[in-house]
Amino acid sequence: MDSLNNLWKPDYLLNIELIDTQHRGFFDICLTANMLCETGRRSKIQLQELIHILYRMRGYAFKHFHTEEALLLDYNYPKLYTHLRLHDQFLASFQVFTEEIHGHFSENKTPDPAVVLTCAEHINEYVVNWWGDHILTADKEFSEFILAQKKRKT
Ligand SMILES: [Fe+2]
Ligand SMILES: [Fe+2]
Fold first, then answer.
1. Tens of pLDDT, residues 86-98
2. Residues 147-150: contacts with CB within 8 Å, 24+ apart?
3. How many angstroms is it from 66 CA to the middle of ligand 1?
């Protein structure tokens, strides 16, 4: 897994300011998750801490996808639907994580910190990889389309 300070990379810049800012903001949440994992390797972490981060990621993803999809709609992006489906797949994976956590901890007993850590690591690794790959491929593609459109208008 990435070290604490290099989750965001300059390669992720798309030159669309609002989108770049939001992308970076998401990696800040991933950094918090990464720190939780670091803590979990040294001492016990609580399930509540993981759930809190998971909900922050989920809310932020909703906000970002809404911003991005509105922009793609504005620009009549030809691959809008394909892009939307990729966002939906990400959100669906959150549902899987939520169910996984519920499955582990549904009984009325104190969650095992080692299992909480494994869940946190699994989720964080998936999210960081997905977000990075998505920016470098699908988001990069729409940004090139939008920047070309902007250039044509000037
Ligand atoms: Fe996207
Ligand atoms: Fe994005």
1. 999 999 998 999 8
2. 147/15, 147/16, 149/75
3. 10
Q: At what angle do helices 113-134 and 47-74 cross, to 10 degrees?
A: 10
> What are 29-79's pLDDT values in tens digits?
999 999 999 999 999 998 889 999 999 999 999 999 999 999 999 999 999
Of the ligands numbered here, which is closest to the C-alpha atom of 14?
Answer: 2
Give the number of other Cβ atoms within 10 Å of residue 83's Cβ: 20
Q: How far apart are CA 6 and CA 31, in angstroms?
A: 9
Helix %, strand %, coil % for the chain, to 5? 80, 0, 20
Domain boundaries, the chain: 15-153
* Ligand 2 centroid distance, CA of 64 (Å): 7
Ligand nearest the Cα atom of residue 60: 2
**How many Å lie between the centroid of ligand 1 and the Cα of residue 7?**
17
Ligand that comes closest to the CA of residue 83 = 1
Q: Domain 15-153 falls in which CATH fold?
A: Four Helix Bundle (Hemerythrin (Met), subunit A) (1.20.120)
Cα of 86 to ligand 1 centre, how many Å?
7
Q: Which pTM value belongs to this model?
A: 0.91
